[in-house]
Amino acid sequence: MTERELTDRTASLVPPVEDRPRRTIAVVHAGLGQPSSTRLLADRLADATVRELEALGHEVTVEVVELRDHGHAIIDAMLTGFPSGDLASDIETITQADGVIAVTPLFTTTYSGLFKSFVDILDKEVLTGMPVLLGATGGTPRHSLALEYSMRPLFTYLRADVITTSVFAATDDWAQAGDRTRHDDGASSLPERIERAGRSLAAIVSARGEHAKPDDPFATTPSFLDMLGGD
Fold first, then answer.
1. What is the pLDDT of residue 6?
2. pLDDT for the residue 166
3. Half-sphere exposure at residue 193, Cβ-oriented, CA atoms within 13 angstroms
4. SS3 track for the chain
5. Looking at the predicted structure, is the pLDDT value of residue 11 above 50?
6. 7-11, 84-88, 162-166 — which is least confidently predicted?
7. Contact 96, 124 (CB under 8 A)
8. What are the beta bridge partners of residue 134?
9. Residue 97 has what pLDDT?
10. What is the distance between the alpha carbons of residues 51 and 29, in angstroms, rounded to a whole number?
11. Which of 50, 98, 120, 196 has an alpha carbon 20 to 30 Å from 202's alpha carbon atom?
């Protein structure tokens, strides 16, 4: 079989775009700067996941939630108990996704206050069973264990399905981001870790099928306008 025939045969096995199963990945990051290494890591993880899902025959949509844009709204939601406006819309986007990528900078060896405050305003049931890939950025590799002793327990408490592979990117990792060779200590390069994590998340999201969207407890509640007999 010629290379052209092999290419044509492979293409014939891929379903048309409109027939491909659809998956949505929500990317939540707490980067503060613009540009932000936290946003960069989140984007790289999303790209790796999308490539793997597309290779598995899926049509993929990525929705990015930047927590820095919701700083005041998050505090308001903590005080009132109810998120509103764009924040409420972005929370709905996350809860209706098929998988979540959550990335935070590390301060004083743990996740940022902005990141934790956002998690605190989420309903405790909305991430149950949700595949979640964790990522974090920090100054030195010494902080990498924060992924395991602070971030993973946080999402385990929310009963999310936390992906085994997580990714930490220190400042030095970005200087070697284009180098796929292993470090002197045998550790994988940042691109290798990102690709491995993307494969892990994609495999779970693909195998599970479309995420069952949580029921809206207020879906059948009439609006105030309806109760007042308005048009």
1. 43
2. 95
3. 25
4. CCHHHHHHHHHHHCCCHHHCCEEEEEEEECCCCCCCHHHHHHHHHHHHHHHHHHHCCCEEEEEEEEHHHHHHHHHHHHHHCCCCHHHHHHHHHHHCCCEEEEEEEEECCEECHHHHHHHHHCCCCCCCCCEEEEEEEECCHHHHHHHHHHHHHHHHHCCCEECCCCEEEEHHHHHCCCCCCCCCCCCCCHHHHHHHHHHHHHHHHHHHCCCCCCCCCCCCCCCHHHHCCCC
5. no
6. 7-11
7. no
8. 102
9. 97
10. 20
11. 120
pLDDT(204) > 70: yes
C-beta of residue 201 within 8 angstroms of C-beta of residue 62: no
Q: Which residues contact 154 (CB under 8 A, 6 or more apart)?
A: 111, 116, 119
Amino acid at 231: D
- The confidence score (pLDDT) of residue 52 equals 97
Whether cis (ω within 30° of 0) applies to the bond prior to 16 is no
pLDDT of residue 190 exceeding 90: yes
Residue listed under structure tokens 């999303």: 46
Question: Do 52 and 203 meet the contact criterion of CB atoms below 8 Å apart?
Answer: yes
Amino acid letter, residue 41: L
pTM to 2 decimal places: 0.81
Report how far residue 202's alpha carbon sits from residue 195's, in angstroms, rounded to the nearest whole number.
10
